[in-house]
Amino acid sequence: MAISMRTAPYRVHRDPDRCIQCQVCVRQCANGVHRWDDEEAEVVSEDRECVNCHRCVVYCPTGALTISRSPLDYAANANWRKPDIDQIYLQSETGGTLLTGMGNNRPYPVYWDHLLLNASQVTNPSIDPLREPVELKTLLGRKPDSLELKKGTLAEPVPPQLELEVPVMFSAMSFGSISLNAQKALARAAIDLGIYWNCGEGGLHPEMDPYTGRVIVQVASGRFGVNMDYLNAGAAIEIKIGQGAKPGIGGHLPGEKVGPEVSVTRMIPVGSDAISPAPHHDIYSIEDLRQLIYSLKEATEYRKPVGVKIAAVHNVAAIASGSVRAGADYLAIDGFRGGTGAAPLRIRDNVGIPIELALAAVDSRLRAEGIRNQVSLVVAGSIRNSADVVKAIALGADAVYIGTAALISLGCHMCQKCYRGKCNWGIATTDAYLSKRLNPEIGARRAANLIQAWKHEIKEMLGGMGINAIESLRGNRLALRGVNLTSRELDILQVKAAGE
Amino acid sequence: MRVEVKLDAKGKGYRQLNSEVRQALEAGATQILLDGVNGHYYLGAGLRGNQRLVVNGTPGNDTACYLDGPEMVIYGNAQDGLGNTMNNGRVIVHGGAGDVLGYGMRGGELFIRDSIGYRGGIHMKEFKEKCPVIVIGKSAGSFLGEYMAGGRIVLLGLDSPEGQIIGRHCGSGMHGGCMYIRDTVDRDLLSPDIMNVPLSKSDEAFIRMCVSRYGEYFGLAVEQLPAGSFLKLVPRGNRPYARLYAGV
Fold it and tell me: What is this structure's pTM?
């Protein structure tokens, strides 16, 4: 076996004065970093396997462990950085397509951080949400062009809508990419909060039956788990065309992750790859998309919204317009920083555009075409906090999807190794031993706490602007000012510069 | 008790027609005769039960999508997307069918008297006792059985003694299930992802059963149908991309 030229990216430091040789770290690490050495009669650690997930650090009862980035670097070179060199070593050793997890980690601009919110001073009073109601209720779905009343009641029923207490939903994460306990935690939180969770393209495990009242079910190119029970279970149906972390490509759930439970849910044999092709092979045009949207509406008798999820790509505004005309009741747009359980590195890091620009472009286009009312916009990739939510709504979103933030609330430490299936936090794994580490009750409480906290923060930001209903902020770009942006970027965002 | 209902599709849009079909079934119809069908989408979409729909005419795209039990008999040609994501039941087509036949099909049976278009049976699945079956009388277009993950496709190759009965890239990305194709095909048309293996006794019995049911549905004597040799095409592995990736 040839020596690998790749060196350990992290160093594990064990303070010998603090370590009591209790071996908690040995039991907690699924990567095999820590082991008991019989000869030395002590715990030893192997740096090379460490992914810096902090599981051992958090669980060490004496605080004996710390992890640091390896100080080892190559000769200073602003062009050939360490990852560039390491990735070539890895590819020349394996011949493999580079695979990674979570969202884009490259230093592209984060436009949320260049947008600032307004507040009332003197001329219109701000509102204190602790004393006055601030309405966050949001309805997702097609809004009619007009309402007709006959004898005081609606002549035509309003198209089906999703009713959210907070304009935040948990984005699509399949059982398989995350553990059943992680899915249960988010589903329970969604029910408690009056929002929705999305089961992704993995079908619905029978144990998720109690949580189907608030589930959005996904139909993707692999059509895994799609049958009438599944379609009937969903509060809404979402056609997944693309994902921000990997626009233009499909998904491969590796056979290692297809254990007995995933097998039942996806209806494929244990150990078989679960392959979702890059395109839906029945959709090669907007007309074909319309055909799938209406086949789902027809099969569910027009009782629930049918949405379409697309990745933010260069001509997203035209695609969005076509999708609305094809009959989408809501459109989910996933920016290029969106998370994933597994994506080819080059795709994740180089394909797609930021959600802020995509959202502004889509909202402007739909308004210019006079069809903005026909669709709700849900944006994702990535929303990190309540200020991002408020800015997204001011740019034109109806609601946001959060995936990464929701997983962090459950304990994700962003090690970006989801694709390995060995998540020490019990989140991105289907291993029964590891999954048990995530208690769905505790997880649900943590995720619900996060959204409750955001809910109050959103109300405070709205109240500060003198706005008492989120409806009044939607697409109100006068509530935003840009800093450190070019005039071209400001034009696309349709936002004034700070000071204007 | 047999309750037959007749519906005339003429002058109706698909939404109205499908709604009338559902209403008739809810009212207890066990068989519905649909006349004048001409391009109506989604006939049979998501219907459940053991009723029978007889369609006279040319149904539109996505006929029998998500179908979950009933039998549909079509006297005419089916268009694209027949049996899309179908779960259970049977469709018998007295004619040909278009592209993406049985996409992501999870169970049930499709019997097509004539030929089908591109991408037949792609991404079909199979799980435990649920095993979808597609039987095609004549020929199929390119990408037959692409990404196939389970189920059975039987291609009889009737009326094509010399000609090719499949297009190119047959079985590309296939990682489950099995195709029985009448052995008149150029091997270059087969994807490198699949291989030809000898037929077992049970394979032969299965093909015989499909042939005799094909004859029965379409009124042909079994003697007129081929008894000759079939290729049995199966994937080389259920992990086609196992060595594709290297985790960073």
Answer: 0.96
